[in-house]
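anyone seen this seq b4? input:
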Amino acid sequence: MSASAILGACSGKKTEFRGVDITGADYARDIPLTDHNGQKRSLQDFRGKVVVVFFGYTQCPDVCPTSMQELAEVKQMLGKDGDRLQGIFVTVDPERDTPEVLKAYMANFDPSFLALSGTPEQIAAVAKDFKIYFKKVDGKTPTSYTMDHSAGSYVYDASGRLRVYNRYGSGAQALGADVRALLQEAG
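predicted toks r here
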């Protein structure tokens, strides 16, 4: 634990976030899905890292790629501490977002980021636990549909506790400040 974390704990000073402080929330407890490499995942897999979870889909025209690019910017801003950040993308479109598609999509942002998927029922259960809204919106053809979905990132501290919700549009600087604060807490 760093000196600032020890002093903060002793003084009772609470970490201030630029996103919404949801420390102690009783939802968004886990992500029991499979990553794009075929490995079953859980938040426990990433202990020691700050984890940022975002729900979306690869054919999203703006919100999803913007959010993932901002997360990649945060990792770069962190410099050597960037290895202590884990980006997680959870698809809400398992029909089109195959493991191959998800792997290629993550490569656009950062090779260490993971994309998670599962059956429609598994994804619905995880989304419900995270209070994520998503709905298929028919297009002109059966494959040209879009997905309406909640847009924001959930940030977990290095102990695996849910701490911050960053609203879409907050920007890389705000998310980066919150990630940096959680890394400092961890020491």
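The chain has one domain: 20-186. Confidence is low (pLDDT under 50) at residues 1-11. kinda curious what u guys think
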